[in-house]
Amino acid sequence: MPKKTKSYFLSEKELFSSTKLVRSRKADYMSSRSSLREVLSLIFNLDPLKVPLDGEFGRIPSIPPEYGYISLSHCDNALLIGWSIEKIGVDIERIDRRFNAKGIMKRFYLEDEIKELNLIKNSEEFRKEVMKLWVTKESSLKWSQDTIASDLLNWQIKLLENKAFNKSLNLNLNAYCLKYKNWFLGAASKFVRIDNTYPLICDMF
User: Fold this and answer.
1) Quick check: 36 and 55 in contact, CB under 8 A?
2) pTM given for the model
3) Measured between alpha carbons, how far is 127 from 198 in angstroms, rounded to an integer?
4) pLDDT for residue 204
């Protein structure tokens, strides 16, 4: 969904949190929390301000387990809200985003991933494959609620198998990279398999 330019649904705690932020971060924060409340209100048929969301700044947004699990990600022109009855992590990036693909690969990817990427000779395809791995790693990282960038090195991605493996935790996740319009969407969960049940995508443009 697009980022809101105006915020409508914020709790008193969220409004107070926003007063501590500089203008640019404040706009993103208020937009994401307001949009999250709006989406969850449609899922649960509740008033947005009655959604039991812990959305204060500085915390990972959460809802009580009986309401399911949420994950957020945003890029320069869109906000991705993931909701499931099982714990999930999501990430979003514009497909046409320009970045130092080789630098990202060397810093954050594992030896096996680097070997496969180096087989790609077309620079544009190489950039896209690096990004696919990135959103899948990020969604796996968010599933585990790690926040340190170096923890990306603990996640090995097998895109063709839709799997993410954390070598330090000895943990396997179902992990996916989906192409939707102008974005790559990453999603990771231990129990949800998107290849069996394709996700419902609600486009709120």
Assistant:
1) yes
2) 0.91
3) 26
4) 55
Count of beta carbons in the 10 Å neighbourhood of residue 74: 18
In the chain, alpha helices (H): 12-18, 23-44, 101-108, 111-117, 123-144
pLDDT value at position 6? 58
State both tokens at 134.
Answer: 């990135």
Question: To the nearest whole percent, how much of the chain has pLDDT over 70?
Answer: 90
Give the position of tokens 């915020």.
7
Domains located in the chain, CATH noted: 12-67 (no CATH), 90-188 (3.90.470.20)
d(CA 152, CA 107): 10
Q: What is the pLDDT of residues 140-183, one digit of tens each?
A: 999 998 766 668 889 999 999 999 999 888 999 999 999 999 99
Candidates 63, 61, 67, 65; CA nearest to 80 is 61
Give SS3 for 63.
coil
Q: Directed axis angle between helix 123-144 and helix 101-108, to 10°?
A: 40
Mean pLDDT, rounded, of the chain: 90
pLDDT at position 205 is 45
Instruction: Kindly provide the residue ranges of all beta strands, DSSP E only, lying in 47-181, ordered along the sequence.
Output: 69-75, 78-84, 88-94, 155-158, 163-166, 171-180
Among the listed residues 195, 197, 205, 194, the one whose alpha carbon sits nearest the alpha carbon of residue 90: 194
Residues in the chain: 205
